[in-house]
């Protein structure tokens, strides 16, 4: 029988689930490195899986930043030492120069199963596939046969982005903006409920009810 991993639900600074051992957050900057100095094989493996998942879905790869690695590694060590899964309560203070910052935290018997757990959770997967993020730092610590993992994502403050076209399957902060405006729980994932609300909004405002958020729908939303 496969082991069930604990999850912490996602959030855009901090959130938690309950089936795997994962979590998310939001906001940083540092020197770019392929793998930061001292990066472990485990950390490199986690980063590779994140970027492989993004590439497979046509999303740009994330750049590893050493300052984010330091924040993530410290959190992984704290969780392993206390044998407790939780978000970094000082994430927004420890990460600098951010527009958006996110965090996933989890633990399990190996990297593959923790990654699978993140990807099986819409909220955690949304963090990993978020098009707004451009940078990442991973920390991983082994303790008593478990690997404790913290992933810190960031879009730097100086980065600017225009309103993207959103449709079923889209992820990111832009989706959350639309969801909040339409009274949908802001998961960052454009699913069937969001699409239904978008269609209803478009119908009320005399727009084609396509369920796709383009420039005209953005303007109607006032965002």
Account of the 3D structure:
With 223 residues, the chain is α+β, with helices and mostly antiparallel strands. 38% of the residues lie in helices and 17% in strands. It contains eight helices and six strands. Strand 1 (14-16) and strand 2 (23-25) form a beta hairpin. The chain starts with 13 loop residues before the first strand and ends with a helix. Mean pLDDT is 82; it is low at 1-7 and 9-34.
What's the helix and strand layout?
Elements lengths: L13 E3 L6 E3 L15 H16 L6 E2 L1 H17 L8 H4 L3 E11 L2 H10 L1 H8 L5 E9 L2 E11 L16 H9 L10 H13 L10 H7 L2
Parallel strand pairs: 3-5
Antiparallel strand pairs: 1-2, 4-6, 5-6
Highlighted features:
single chain, 223 residues, alpha+beta, four-stranded mixed beta sheet, two-stranded antiparallel ribbon, 8 helices, 6 strands, elongated
Strand content: 15-25%
Strand order of the largest sheet: 3-5-6-4
Low-pLDDT runs of 5+ residues are: 1-7, 9-34
SSE series:
EEHEHHEHHEEHHH
Helix content: 25-40%
Overall form: elongated
Q: Report the radius of gyration as a whole number of Å.
A: 18 Å
Mean pLDDT level: 82
Topology, number of strands: 6
* Largest beta-sheet characterization: 4 strands, mixed
Ends distance: 48 Å
Number of helices: 8
């Amino acid at each position: 029988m496969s082991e069930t991993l604990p999850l912490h639900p996602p959030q855009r600074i901090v959130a938690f689930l309950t089936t795997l051992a994962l979590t998310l957050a939001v906001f940083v900057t540092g020197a770019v490195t392929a793998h930061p100095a001292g990066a472990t094989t485990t950390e490199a493996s986690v980063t590779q899986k994140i970027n492989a998942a993004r590439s497979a879905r046509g999303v740009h790869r994330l750049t590893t930043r050493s300052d984010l690695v330091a924040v993530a590694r410290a959190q992984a060590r704290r969780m392993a030492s206390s044998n407790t899964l939780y978000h970094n309560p000082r994430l927004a203070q420890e990460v600098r120069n951010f527009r958006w910052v996110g965090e996933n935290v989890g633990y399990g018997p190996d990297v593959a199963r923790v990654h699978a757990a993140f990807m099986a959770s819409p909220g955690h997967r949304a963090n990993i596939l978020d098009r707004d993020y451009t940078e990442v730092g991973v920390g991983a610590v082994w303790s008593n046969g478990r690997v404790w993992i913290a992933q810190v994502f960031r879009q730097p403050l100086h980065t600017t982005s225009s309103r993207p076209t959103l449709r079923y399957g889209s992820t990111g902060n832009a989706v959350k903006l639309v969801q909040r405006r339409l009274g949908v729980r802001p998961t960052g994932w454009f699913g069937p409920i969001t699409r239904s609300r978008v269609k209803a909004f478009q119908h009320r405002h005399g727009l084609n009810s396509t369920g796709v958020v383009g420039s005209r729908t953005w303007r109607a939303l006032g965002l």
